[in-house]
Amino acid sequence: MQNSKNSKEGMANSKKIEARKEQILRAAEKVFAQKGFQDATIAEIAKLAKISEASIYEYFTTKEGLLFAIPIATASKLFETTDFHLKMIRGAANQLRAIIYLFFSSYRDNPDFAAIIMLILKHNKRFLETEGHLVIRRGIKNIATIVEQGIAAGEFKEDTNPYLVRAMIIGTIEHVVTAWLMTGKPDDLMELVDPLIDTIIQGIKPREEETSCWSLRRVAK
Amino acid sequence: MQNSKNSKEGMANSKKIEARKEQILRAAEKVFAQKGFQDATIAEIAKLAKISEASIYEYFTTKEGLLFAIPIATASKLFETTDFHLKMIRGAANQLRAIIYLFFSSYRDNPDFAAIIMLILKHNKRFLETEGHLVIRRGIKNIATIVEQGIAAGEFKEDTNPYLVRAMIIGTIEHVVTAWLMTGKPDDLMELVDPLIDTIIQGIKPREEETSCWSLRRVAK
Amino acid sequence: MQNSKNSKEGMANSKKIEARKEQILRAAEKVFAQKGFQDATIAEIAKLAKISEASIYEYFTTKEGLLFAIPIATASKLFETTDFHLKMIRGAANQLRAIIYLFFSSYRDNPDFAAIIMLILKHNKRFLETEGHLVIRRGIKNIATIVEQGIAAGEFKEDTNPYLVRAMIIGTIEHVVTAWLMTGKPDDLMELVDPLIDTIIQGIKPREEETSCWSLRRVAK
Amino acid sequence: MQNSKNSKEGMANSKKIEARKEQILRAAEKVFAQKGFQDATIAEIAKLAKISEASIYEYFTTKEGLLFAIPIATASKLFETTDFHLKMIRGAANQLRAIIYLFFSSYRDNPDFAAIIMLILKHNKRFLETEGHLVIRRGIKNIATIVEQGIAAGEFKEDTNPYLVRAMIIGTIEHVVTAWLMTGKPDDLMELVDPLIDTIIQGIKPREEETSCWSLRRVAK
DNA sequence: AATGAATGAGCGTTCATTCAT
DNA sequence: CATGAATGAACGCTCATTCAT
Questions:
Q1: Which of A183, A5, A157 is nearest to B123 (CA)?
Q2: pLDDT at C11
Q3: For C100-104, C185-189, D101-105, which range has the lowest pLDDT when averaged over its residues?
Q4: C1-61 maps to CATH 1.10.150.130
Q5: Percent of chain B with pLDDT over 90
Q6: Which positions in chain B touch A127 (Cβ < 8 Å)?
Q7: What's the pLDDT score for residue D9?
Q8: Domain span(s) for CATH 1.10.357.10 in chain D
Q9: Does pLDDT of C13 surpass 80?
Q10: Distance from CA of D5 to the nearest CA of C (A)
Q11: Distance, angstroms, CA B54 to C1' E20?
């Protein structure tokens, strides 16, 4: 009985703490996204989070530490979702399409998260050594892996550079999303998914004469 | 004599002024590239430029104005060079290749300029309404135009989206250069030129079966 | 049974409380001595005392109150010891010697206590109106009293100023101990006891011609 | 002509700067003396000096740096005065008397300086490695030297410990001045000069029976 | 009795910018 | 034209203290 009470309290407490953290993180996300890191003030974040400035420092060590903590949850969720979907999809091309789709929709649905990543964190060297960056790095690794699998399966050309493909995908997404953010988010991001993936896929698939028109070499094998 | 002396002085002065400006800009470029905008101080720039802090304000209105003025010269030169070369090149694909080559080599040769663009200016909304940004915008327009010409010439697929292609090219370059800058510039950027352009070109050129394998459809037309 | 248990508990409790206080005081003494008053934090004291910060405020009203309480026990013990020894000693000079000896050895054996007194409390005006200061004041009164008795007994010159003598003794001890603390406690404090007291005693004892060589004047009286 | 103008300006400027520094130092001295280091604020010092807070940092690097600079001028003057007088005085005893007199009167006439030294700086370890402390150290060295000369001249006992004598003199002065400061400066410090020096001198001069009373013992030898 | 959690209040320091000379 | 000197305005962070539980 005592145990259950304690464990309940424990849960309640840690839940409360997590809720508080979440509350601060959401406020910070909004303020950082709107003002940028330097122009954002702890005072404003605290106000928005309905908490005292000092309390923020109970949960995060510094203003920058707070910034670095922001993307962890959303990025984790994004990459979990991605992993979940990828398991159900056959074919490297389709998997890439899914990834691009999920990235775009994640950014579209979380523009503050997108702004933090694209406009603030991406250029901060200290962020490179952070848990948040680790999450993102792991999530991005997928792409190169899928490309490699596509090459192995003959879906993509043998001389395809998986890291270049990844750079093209991520770079294009970043560029498009950044422009979208900077211009006040007028466009429909999702319209670009298909053209982008189609272009990429066509760019890296084996030459037609090798595959479609008799596919001599493959037959030969 | 006095006149000529004066006019000489006038020339000398305006030259001197330009030289002074250039001196400040180079110092600012170095400092901003190294420290970022916020962490760079006017004091440090002034010191490096061997000029007083107050004097900087004789030539530039604000710290941000100084920042915004930095890329103008280098960007102008880059786009002039690009224009110059493009006139000598036939074929949209070859022209895109040239552009990518020139961009990469410009960034490689001017890493401070690259850092200012990639890590600082790209995310500054106020920069959008700036002469510097105008120069860059004009320079980038080329790409979409060339793609359009390529489509018109049958070099690229008819349903190619020129703006997406441009986004892919610019986005990939930015992503690669940013990574190169953030990781201490270890890689050889130029190695990526060919794979990148090859992939893009293959991604947007008309389908093989339409062109290589008897081009039935086109003939039918 | 219950009663006895309760009273036992009562005893245990008050003992426990005293133990707790003592625990906090020792932690505070160490931290204050090491860091000084301002640089010491309640958090650090609490950590060292293995108690929560809030609990400290169950036993002491403020950080300064805690500071003021530190020397009471040690000072009381010192002055009790001193009183105890003085009863067994005849002659003002010997008594002064004993006092100086006991002071020095107390500081040597309790360098944290010494640091608190010499480097922190001695300069705090609010400490003047404190129980801790009262204890010290009482303990120091001895010296002047002994000097007065020495004068009355003809051991010391009639025109000796007891308060100056006290100031010389205390001042010298303070100066020496402070230097000892500030320089990392390298010297052997005790070596100074004899030279100090000898010099003082010779400085205040009646002139030789009055005492040793026929003591004319005294006889004349 | 130009030269003289320039040098005049140079003088004017450096004079102005010195005046400004002096102005800040006087304000800081007063505020630090009244409130102590921690409770003093730059704001208050700036206000009293009729200067902006930021300007203080044009002349001093930190709050503590400002504190450390305060005693330099006064201490230098004190020790120069001391040196000046000592040259005109014969006899170690008289010289010690002069030193004690000059110390006391310096503290009496500059109670803020005295408070800074006695209540703040004396206990700051970082001050030990400071120009201000160097000045003081040099000034205090005198005392031991004079005692040594007194010993050599037969004025003082051969077994006199010059460092103990110095500690007694400085310690007593410090103790007395500190008490004077802490109690609101009611007493006349100067009354203590003669009794103090007389006691010290008698405490360290060769024994009377050897010198005054026909020196029987010595003769006996 | 004990403490986890929350915060009010405070301050040193930085720096872009101005202006008299 | 050049600049030395001055400053207004801002802010992250700390910590002693409180209080509900």
A1: A183
A2: 60
A3: C185-189
A4: no
A5: 81
A6: none
A7: 45
A8: 68-220
A9: no
A10: 51
A11: 13
Tokens encoding B2 = 């006095």
User: D186 CB near a chain C CB, below 8 Å?
Assistant: no
pLDDT in tens, D93-142: 999 999 999 999 999 999 999 999 999 999 999 999 999 999 999 989 99
Distance in angstroms (rounded) separating the CA atoms of residues C117 and C132: 10
Between CA A130 and C1' F19 the distance (Å) reads 37
Q: Among all chains, which residue has been given the structure tokens 């400066």?
A: D185
- The class of domain A68-220 in CATH terms is mainly alpha
Q: How far is CA C21 from CA A25, B189, C58, D71, in A?
A: 41, 68, 10, 41
Which carries the bigger pLDDT value, residue C52 or residue C216? C52
| Distance between CA atoms of residues A189 and A175, nearest Å | 11
Look at residue B62 and give its three-state secondary structure: coil
Site of tokens 């309790």:
C110
Query: pLDDT at position C208, please?
Result: 57
Q: Is the CB of C52 under 7 A from strand E?
A: yes
* pLDDT single digits (tens) C130-181: 999 999 999 899 899 999 999 999 999 999 999 999 999 999 999 999 999 9
pTM of the model: 0.87
pLDDT score of D52 more than 60: yes
pLDDT of residue D15: 78
Q: Which residue places its CA closest to the C1' of nucleotide F15?
A: C41
- DSSP per-residue codes, C4-60: HHHHHHHHHHHHHHHHHHHHHHHHHHHHHHHH-TTT--HHHHHHHTTS-HHHHHHH-
Q: Which chains touch A (3 or more CB pairs under 8 A)?
A: B
CB A220 within 8 A of CB A210: no
Q: How far is CA B5 from CA B8, C49, C78, D13, in A?
A: 5, 83, 92, 36
Q: Is residue D63 within 8 Å of residue D69, measured between CB atoms?
A: no
Give every residue of chain A whose pLDDT is below 50, as ranges.
1-10, 209-221
Interface contact D209-C213, CB threshold 8 A? yes
Could you read off the pLDDT of B134-183 as tens digits, one per residue? 999 998 998 999 999 999 999 999 999 999 999 999 999 999 999 999 99
With touching defined as 3+ CB pairs under 8 A, do chains C and A touch?
A: no
Residue whose CA is minimally distant from F14 C1': A54
Nearest to A190 by CA among A105, A90, A74, A89: A105
- Model pLDDT, residue D208: 56
CA distance A153 to A51: 55
- Return the sign of the alpha-carbon dihedral for residues B135, B137, B143, B146: negative
Determine which helix (DSSP H) or strand (DSSP E) holds C75, and give its type and residue range.
helix C63-86
Tally C-beta pairs within 8 A across A and B. Answer: 110
Q: Do D165 and C199 touch (CB under 8 A)?
A: yes
A197: tokens are 């993936």
- CB contact (8 A) between residue B118 and residue A120: no
Report CA dihedral (A7, A11, A17, A18) to the nearest 10 degrees: 150
B31 vs B54: CA distance, rounded Å:
17
Residue with tokens 């030279």: C195
Q: What is the reported pLDDT for D14?
A: 76
* Region(s) of chain A under CATH 1.10.10.60: 1-61
Q: What is the pLDDT averaged over residues C47-68?
A: 97
Spatial distance between the Cα atoms of A108 and A110, rounded to a whole number of angstroms: 6
